[in-house]
Amino acid sequence: MPVLLAYCSYSYSSEEVYGTTINAANIGLNWVMSNILPQATGLTVNNVIYRYTTEKDPEADMLVHVQNENAQGNGYIFRSTDDWSGLPGNSINKTIPVGGIGIDFWGDGSIEVEGFGTVLDPEVYYTYQYVPCDNPQSDPECPGYIDPLTLIQEPEIDTSSEEYIQAELDRETNMKSQKEEEEKEARNKFAKATEEKVRDSLEKMLGLSIGAGLQEAQDTLLHNALVSTNYLPRGYFGQIKGGEYPDAEMLKDSDLPDNANGRRVNFAQDIMHQKIVQSQYD
Amino acid sequence: MKKLFILLFCAFSAQAAQMEVMGNVASKCVVTPDTAGVFGNPTSDVLSTDPTDGGVDPVVRFDVIQASSYKARISYPTAFSASPTLNDTVVWTGDVATSQVSDTSMSGYDAAKVEFDNVTEFSLTVAGSTWFKTESQADYGYGKAFPGGVYRAIVSAECIAI
Fold it and tell me: What DSSP character marks residue A126?
């Protein structure tokens, strides 16, 4: 029995799988190869089989290209052209060996029509082969398969040990102090930014900013130019005597009587106000 | 040494020999039945392979390795190979045409075909595979119903060297 099992395992890993895809052109004249070929490591395509029917005027020129882009470069990895020019329409059925081209080269496929005519009932199939366990990680059944979970599994830790408890406490302390430090740094940063803002606004207010300095220089130049024209009045250059100008007391506190006319106006305003307020409830 | 050679030569030249020449000719034209035909019975007096009548046209494939060396000769049936007893005449009609081609140039086969009686001949001027479908219809008597039973007919396809 063990011998038989060993044989089965061996045959699984070495037996090549041969297959044919579904009709790649079943939903249109363009198809994505990753949806058509099985995504197996080491898969190679051996043949392209295609069939379609053309409907055309026998006199008309018509070229039909069945093709696959080269996924590893420019151009096409496969291209078969049928020239129907000057021929009546018919159904064509072709099998083209491609000699085992790797899956990585097969870009998106299409049927392209040049000239006048229509392609009907297109069918495109790819025959392929691959070794299922070429990459042991492709299937858990493959010999040599390594469970990825076992690679990242952490070693078991004795959480009751003193060392573990101490390490956890240290870690928490470190985290706490780190957090406090970060908060302190954020506070300092905010304070610094606020201080700079206030300083800027004060400089602006006091005309100490660079803009204000430039304005002052321009003013001086303008002033000098005006003085040189000699058009300024003489009083402009006169000195005003400085000194202290104390407040002159004009009104002494006394009994001020109410204004009877003002009362009427006051009442009228009150009535109007009440009317307006009342109007929103009516 | 020289003398020995001459002697040997003389000895050989004096003998007579017969040699057999063998050759094996593999056919470069292969005929393969592709689709079995089925008679539909759209009306009681008609048996037809036309898909619109519920039938299936038989298809035969000719694989030619060498171009312009063969012709395909296909005949639609003119009698049942097996059927219930028929007391009235059966009128046969049919047509043979390309169904699929492996090369666009074969598309011209239909225009160049030669028809006589129930036979159609195609010159296979292009190497590759050509599928020919044979349509046939049997009409019994003058609107007379076919007796119940199984009906069989034979389409013959030959590849003839030109």
Answer: E
* Chain center to CA of B11: 57
Which parts of A19-119 fold into alpha helices (H)?
A: none
Which ranges constitute the DSSP H helices of A42-152? 148-152
Instruction: Give every CB contact of residue A224 below 8 A, 6+ residues apart in sequence.
Output: none
Partner-chain residue, chosen from B99, B104, B129, that has the shortest CB–CB distance to A87? B104
The DSSP-derived string for B94-132 is: EEEEEEEESSGGGGGHHHH-EEETTEEEEEE-SSEEEEE
Distance from CA of B2 to the nearest CA of A (A): 58
Phi then psi dihedrals of residue A65, to 5 deg: -105, 125
In sequence order, which ranges of chain A are alpha helices (DSSP H)? Answer: 2-14, 148-152, 162-205, 210-229, 260-279
Please list every residue in chain A whose beta carbon sits closer than 8 Å to the beta carbon of residue B107. 84, 87-90
B27-161 topology per CATH = Immunoglobulin-like (2.60.40)
Contact B102 A94 (CB under 8 A): yes
Say if residues B157 and B31 touch (Cβ distance below 8 Å): yes
DSSP-assigned letter for residue B40: B
Tokens linked to A160: 């009751």
- Please give the model's pTM, rounded to 2 decimal places: 0.58
ipTM above 0.85, yes or no: no
Best probe of the B interface among A51, A93, A120, by most B CBs < 10 A, is A93
Sequence spans of domains, chain B: 27-161
* Count of Cβ atoms closer than 10 Å to residue A137 Cβ: 13
- pLDDT tens track of chain B, all 162 residues? 344 444 444 444 556 888 888 888 777 899 999 999 999 999 999 999 999 999 999 999 999 999 999 999 999 999 999 999 999 999 999 999 999 999 999 999 999 999 999 999 999 999 999 999 999 999 998 889 999 999 999 999 999 998
8 Å CB contact of A92 and B104: yes
Judged by a CB distance cut-off of 8 A, whether residue A89 touches chain B is yes
d(CA B75, CA B62): 14
Query: Which among A143, A139, A132 is positioned nearest to A42, based on CA atoms?
Result: A132
What is the C-alpha to C-alpha distance for residues A47 and A20, in angstroms, rounded to an integer?
9
CA nearest A133: which of A37, A36, A42? A42
Nearest CA in chain A to B100: A91
Q: Which residue has the tokens 């047509």?
A: B95
**Contact at 8 Å (CB) between B126 and B105?**
yes
